[in-house]
Amino acid sequence: MSDNTLKAVLRQHAENEFAHELAALREADTHARPPNWVLSPWAVRTYLLGGKLDGGIEISPKYIGNARLMEIAISTLATDRALLLYGLPGTAKSWVSEHLAAAISGRSTLIVQGTAGTGEETMRYNWNYAQLIAKGPSHDALIASPIMHAMQHGLIARVEELTRIPADVQDTLITILSEKMLPIPELNTECQAQKGFNLIATANNRDKGVNELSSALKRRFNTVILPIPDTLDEEAAIVDRRVASLGRALELPAEKPALAEIRRIVTIFRELRSGVTADGKTKLKIPTGTLSTAEAISVVGSGMALAAHFGDGSLTARDIASGIIGAVIKDPVQDSVVWKEYLETVVKERSDWKDLYRACREAL
């Protein structure tokens, strides 16, 4: 893909967006690499958590949080165990999955997106029906799934939202993960996984329509639970970094939002998630939504677009008010009560939040 094409893409794959960092790490990497890995576990860790290489090259952090969790995830993928990234929606599971695959295999695109309609053929293989009718079952007529392709070439495959997939289709993975082999009975043969193959799955237990994993499938995974960021500063830093990246990708002609504005949004989300104000003095009702870090990023991004195209380019309370309300009020009855009570008892009482209170009242 040419540089001009990459610049026109709305969202680049991790291996393209951070190609310069991955190249620098490959050059500096002198540690032992597992079979078919592009980088060593040490270099993958540096890529995820950030650092400075000899020569002064800065590697930006892709994950801000508990470093030990990333070390466990990386070391799991160096074994014969698959990795399950588990947690609430918006805790960077897909983000971490993508960057792990990019750093280990140099390719993050071998992905199955889990939905209620995902079938076995999406996990295993499909057929070119024109060739199938003309010549019958053959290797030429077989269409490899992303997982099968990863097995054939010793790469990392990804399955997003594993618990959204019907239980009988989920269990297609049991043989792949335990035997490292995919039977192809139509051809009386099999696809054996090459060294370097592994699988990263993501799942959460909060969405409607979740299908629990069978005990047999759970045993094939090493589970790493990604938590909500521990502190306000940590979560605000994540939002700040991701929003900056989003603004560049969308080429928004807006100023970078002030960290103080981001902190207000994150504070609101954290207080409503926990059911208590930051000072611990006021108990709050909890809305039905998750109010994740990802939603905070979305609120700031939407506000930047409003500021850029319908304001002076500077993010204001008026630009973020509707986004906050939309994120909080998922149930128009129950969540409206929660939000109005929070607005009147918390936002209104904070002297430096008067502009946000007025903007939110106008937006209701």
From TrEMBL:
Record Pfam families: AAA_5
InterPro entries on file: ATPase_dyneun-rel_AAA (IPR011704), CbbQ/NirQ/NorQ/GpvN (IPR050764), P-loop_NTPase (IPR027417)
According to the entry, every stretch annotated as the ATPase dynein-related AAA domain falls at 83-221
Supply the PANTHER family for this chain. MAGNESIUM-CHELATASE SUBUNIT CHLD (PTHR42759:SF1), MOXR FAMILY PROTEIN (PTHR42759)
Protein name per the record? AAA family ATPase
